[in-house]
Amino acid sequence: MKPHILPAIRSTKDLEKLLKTDYETCVLLDTHIGHLNGIMKLIGQYQLKPFMHIDLIKGMSHDEYACEYIIQTYRPRGIVSTKTKVIKKAKALGVVTIFRVFIIDSHALERSIELIQRIEPDYVEVLPGIADKVIQEIHQKTGTPVIAGGLINTPEEIDRAMKSGAAYITTSDKSLW
């Protein structure tokens, strides 16, 4: 098993492949509210504990009320969101939180560091995950473990992100699972 990889599930085919591995957790992306119950039942049969990306559940509001519903109904290991209110609600409900940030320039970096320090998520997911310098700076300035995600397609990119201080890597590239 590769403990530093969090498989990112975008489709039924991704889920089918995951169920043939020995991973214990994953990140559910691009889910449709109508399929969520079936997906969660299947995941439960395999004793997987998923992180659910609230912002990417189609057909559901992306707010703290949706977060509360998801946590109470499906009991995921944790919640992923770009929204501070959602992260605060998930923390209050006792699940692991992953605050996802997109770093496109120095202003976005500064603003993200401020938000991370204010809401204190369990993890911060930095996109793009190939931004080695940003991973290191966010971890050093906030003390929050970093998850590198986005645009990671090779073992070398995984190694660079890990050497820069990433605790985990999220990737939907099944060849890296």
Automatic annotation (TrEMBL):
It comes from the Bacteria. InterPro entries: Aldolase_TIM, GlpP. Keywords: Glycerol metabolism, RNA-binding, Transcription, Transcription regulation. The keyword Zinc-finger does not apply. One of its GO terms (biological process) is positive regulation of DNA-templated transcription. One of its GO terms (molecular function) is RNA binding. Regulates expression of the glpD operon. In the presence of glycerol 3-phosphate (G3P) causes antitermination of transcription of glpD at the inverted repeat of the leader region to enhance its transcription. Binds and stabilizes glpD leader mRNA. This is Glycerol uptake operon antiterminator regulatory protein. The gene is glpP.
